[in-house]
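Practice problem: predict the structure.
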Amino acid sequence: MDDATRKRVLGLLGLGVRGRLAVVGVDRVREAAHRGALRVAVMAADASPHSRGKVEGLLAAKGVPVVSVPSAAELGGVAGRETTAVIGVVDAPMAQGILAAAGPADAVQHGSRRKG
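Answer:
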C-alpha cells in the first residue's frame, strides 16, 4: 500500500470511528461479524498471530473483505488508542469508500486475494 492510499484509508477509518460507523478491537469486530453487521475489516499487518487467529477465519467464513494497513500503531492512532489489531466498519457506504480507496491490490475478499 502506498503512502497516499494508506493515509486515505486511515482518514476514512478515523471518520468512521468518530461517527460510530466502525467498531474497534478484536472482540467488537468478532461481535459485529457474528451479527452480520460487518462490511469490511481493516487489519494491521503487524497484528499478533493470536489476534489474527481470532478474527481471520470468522471474517473469511462471513465473506467480510479485509484491508491490510502496515501497523497496529497507525490503526490505533485513528481510534484514539496506542495500538489496535483491527477495526471493523459496519456502515455500507463507508466500507465501499474504504475498499475503493484501498483498491484490489490491498484488499482480501472472502479469504483470498481479490482479483481486479
